[in-house]
């Protein structure tokens, strides 16, 4: 997310054909579209969310492994975890979409979180190296004051270092949280429209106060106690 390419999928709605995510979805050559964008910053200098870069990674994985991204994931991740119900959409050239449209059940998404929580072990079997998991969740770059402030980004994990959590956040509220220090995995699946409550609000106001009462602040809300966790208000 810091390649320095000109890209904007946040400012305009996806109904606007100038939105780069929309252009990516409509393109007959999505990888070419991404790699053809001009460089406007030094790589590693500026955070700017770019689903196209995730798609390029999917294409690279397929090229290097000789398998499609789905085949690779089935062999090395899904099958070992007993994940069978998977849907993943492809682009116009048959490349699985690296940045969107992977569908898993809540239970199967929680299995991935449990794998991370257990340092890459699943029922005593090593699936992923603990070293790689630690590196993948380490913050590499932070959001700017005017753009995803308070959040960090690792290897496709969002991070909130102050709270010891890393998480995957998908479209319309699909979220997987991993709290290593508290041995906690939380999964949300939803179709959230504008104006509805977001998973982070549920985490902040209900789940964390229930399991971490000593780390929450109790304030009065009407006549009943109302719990509020010190969680960045701009996290959505």
Automatic annotation (TrEMBL):
InterPro entries: Beta-lactam-related, Beta-lactam/transpept-like, Diverse_Enzym_Activities
Domain Beta-lactamase-related: from-to ranges: 2-195
Gene3D superfamilies: DD-peptidase/beta-lactamase superfamily
Family matches, as Pfam families: Beta-lactamase
Name of the molecule in the record: Beta-lactamase-related domain-containing protein
């Amino acid at each position: 997310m810091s390649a320095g390419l000109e890209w904007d999928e946040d400012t305009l709605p996806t109904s606007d054909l100038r939105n780069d995510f929309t252009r990516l979805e409509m393109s007959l050559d999505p990888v070419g579209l991404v790699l053809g964008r001009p460089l406007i910053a030094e790589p590693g200098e500026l955070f700017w969310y770019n689903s196209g870069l995730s798609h390029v990674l999917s294409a690279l994985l397929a090229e290097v492994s000789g398998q499609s991204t789905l085949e690779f994931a089935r062999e090395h991740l899904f099958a070992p975890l007993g994940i069978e119900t998977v849907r993943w959409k492809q682009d116009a050239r048959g490349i699985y979409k690296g940045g969107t449209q992977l569908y898993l059940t809540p239970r199967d998404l929680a299995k991935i979180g449990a794998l991370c929580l257990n340092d890459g072990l699943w029922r005593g079997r090593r699936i992923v190296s603990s070293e790689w998991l630690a590196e993948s969740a380490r913050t590499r770059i932070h959001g700017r004051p005017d753009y995803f402030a308070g959040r960090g980004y690792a290897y496709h994990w969002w991070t909130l270092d102050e709270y010891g959590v890393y998480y995957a956040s998908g479209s319309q509220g699909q979220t997987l949280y991993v709290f290593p220090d508290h041995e906690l995995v939380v999964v949300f699946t939803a179709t959230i429209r504008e104006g509805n409550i977001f998973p982070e609000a549920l985490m902040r106001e209900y789940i964390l106060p229930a399991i971490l009462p000593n780390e929450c602040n109790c304030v009065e809300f009407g006549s009943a106690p109302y719990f509020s966790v010190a969680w960045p208000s701009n996290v959505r």
